[in-house]
Amino acid sequence: MKKQLFTIIIFNMMFGIGQLAWGVAAPVKACADDVQRFCAGLQGRAIRHCLYENSSQLSPACQQEQVQMHARHQKMRAEFKALKADCAADIQQFCANDAVGPARFKCLMSNQSQLSPACQKDLSQLPKWHQHDVAPAN
């Protein structure tokens, strides 16, 4: 359990965008009581670390939520790994001068019609919230 929670706490998505969904998000409802009990006054990543430190004492609902978050994290990590591999040449061609993170995603999205088919497919399969967060401004 602690290893799974530690994986949730410590990670960096391939393009540095992981913080949009992980580590700084508000605690989920299933852990609200545990956060109040063990982590009162903490915010962001400090809450995740606190939950990890107290994992053996968390409520069953919170422990289950942590396991589910780990599974979601693993899925996202695999998707970003595929995206990084499939878009490597496109990043070099179109986005080499863009900083790692949202700027690089915006670059890829704004050049989407010129990207390799594999990269286009990976971008189209990003969760809708990521597409919204990184879509170029019109």
What is the secondary structure topology, with strand pairs?
Blueprint: H1 2-9, H2 32-39, H3 45-53, H4 60-86, H5 88-94, H6 102-110, H7 117-124, H8 128-134
Determine the structural class based on helices, strands and strand pairing: mainly alpha
Low-confidence segments, given as residue ranges, are 1-26, 131-138
pLDDT averaged over residues: 75
Largest sheet: none
Tally of discrete structural domains: 2
Judging from the principal axes of the Cα atoms, what is the shape? elongated
Q: How many beta strands in the DSSP annotation? A: 0
Helix percent band: 55-70%
Count of DSSP H/I helices: 8
Terminal Cα separation, in Å?
Answer: 44 Å
Rounded to an integer, what's the Rg over CA atoms? 17 Å
SSE string:
HHHHHHHH
Into which percentage range does the β-strand content fall?
A: under 5%
Structure description:
It is a single chain. This protein is mainly alpha-helical and 138 residues long. The chain has 8 helices and no strands. The protein is elongated and about 50 Å long.
